[in-house]
Amino acid sequence: MSECLLSPLTFFKCLSEDTRLKTLLMLSVKGELCVCDLTDALQLSQPKISRHLADLRKCGLVLDTRKGKWVYYQLHPDLPAWARDVIKNTANYNDEYFSEALANLSCTSC
């Protein structure tokens, strides 16, 4: 992804939903999570999590990797520096916003 492909408008629209924002913040802290981790953390159904992950993938914010029967997600490595900084700073200065979700992570393999 080239930096010019991700506009600020697209980026902030993708972040404008609670589930997508919390997912990105958790990925910035944990590095990589599978769908089952996110369902536990956010207390949402697998189809709902998968739909939001598909939106994030479509925006170019996350990258998925299949490992066996599970799909793992991480922040897209080609994310522009400005976008990565927004996500990292939001996570660093707003831990109370997603601390419950982090606490819900089972930290076990799916």
Quick recap of the structure?
This protein has 110 residues and is α+β, with helices and mostly antiparallel strands. It has helices spanning 8-15, 18-30, 35-42, 46-59, 81-93, 95-104; strands spanning 33-34, 62-67, 70-75.
What does this structure look like?
This protein is an alpha+beta fold and 110 residues long. The protein has a single domain (3-99), classed as Winged helix-like DNA-binding domain superfamily/Winged helix DNA-binding domain (Arc Repressor Mutant, subunit A, Orthogonal Bundle), CATH 1.10.10. It has six helices and three strands. It has helices at residues 8-15, 18-30, 35-42, 46-59, 81-93, 95-104, and strands spanning 33-34, 62-67, 70-75. A three-stranded antiparallel β-sheet has the order 1-3-2. Helix 2 (18-30) crosses helix 5 (81-93) and helix 3 packs across helix 6. The N and C termini lie far apart (30 Å). The relative contact order is 0.21.
Topology:
Elements: H1 8-15, H2 18-30, E1 33-34, H3 35-42, H4 46-59, E2 62-67, E3 70-75, H5 81-93, H6 95-104
Antiparallel strand pairs: 1-3, 2-3
Helix pairs in contact: 2-5, 3-6
Name the descriptors.
110 residues; alpha+beta; Arc Repressor Mutant, subunit A; 3-stranded antiparallel β-sheet; 13% strand
